[in-house]
Structures are given as C-alpha cells and as structure tokens.
C-alpha cells in the first residue's frame, strides 16, 4: 500500500511543497503513530532489567543468521535494481529526465 499510494502521493507533495515537505508529513504521521502506540500499549508489570548477555545469546541461533542473511540479500538485490531503473528509462525508453513521475 505504501508503494502504490505513498510514493506517488509523496512525489506530488514534493513537487508542490519542495523536497522537504514529504519528510515533514512523515515526521508528523510518525509522531502521531508513536502517540497512539504509547497510549494503547499494555503496561509491563515485569521490573527486571534486560540482560545484554541474553540479547547477544540470540546470535547463537542459526535461524537468526539465516533470516538476517536472506533479508540482506533481498534488500541488496532490491536496491541494486533501483540503480538501473533511471538509466533504463532515460537511455533506452527515451523518457526525459524532467518528466513527471
């Protein structure tokens, strides 16, 4: 939904208000979301402090490393694809750089 609706809406807002406009809108939406989450999250009755050693112990799990590796490869491949979109559109499809998008 964010890609289909948010990207074109952000591009339109960026054209109307400048490049910083969409960032301010996202900052306001994030602050609102944080307030809603803070209001409705249940109170934690547990009072013990988290252990750093216990957090690092999770790195011994093979499943964690498989998940991290697969997500790194997935995001790297996705972002590498964006590298070739602009030259493909401008040089091969002959779409002008300043075309509204």
Characteristic key phrases:
mainly alpha; 101 residues; 4 helices; 2 domains
Q: If you had to describe this structure to a student in words, what would you say it looks like?
A:
Helix content is 72%, strand content 0%. The radius of gyration is 21 Å and the shape is flat. It has four helices and no strands. The chain has helices at 2-17, 21-40, 52-57, 62-92. It is an all-alpha fold.
Blueprint of the fold:
Layout: H1 2-17, H2 21-40, H3 52-57, H4 62-92
- The N- and C-terminal alpha carbons lie at a distance of 18 Å
Number of domains: 2
Measured by DSSP, the beta-strand proportion falls in under 5%
Unreliable segments of 5+ consecutive residues: none
Helix-strand makeup class = mainly alpha
Tell me the overall shape. Answer: flat
Mean pLDDT: 88
Task: Describe the structure concisely for a colleague.
It contains four helices and no strands. By secondary structure, it is mostly helical. It folds into two domains: about 1-40; about 60-100, no CATH class.
């Amino acid at each position: 939904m964010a890609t289909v609706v948010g990207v074109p809406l952000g591009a339109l807002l960026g054209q109307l208000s400048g490049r910083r406009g969409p960032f301010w809108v996202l900052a306001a939406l994030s602050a609102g979301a944080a307030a809603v989450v803070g209001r409705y999250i249940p109170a934690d009755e547990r009072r013990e402090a988290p252990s750093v050693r216990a957090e690092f112990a999770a790195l011994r799990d093979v499943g964690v490393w498989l998940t991290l590796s697969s997500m790194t490869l997935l995001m790297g491949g996705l972002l590498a694809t964006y590298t070739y979109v602009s030259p493909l559109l401008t040089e091969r499809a002959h779409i002008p750089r300043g075309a509204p998008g």
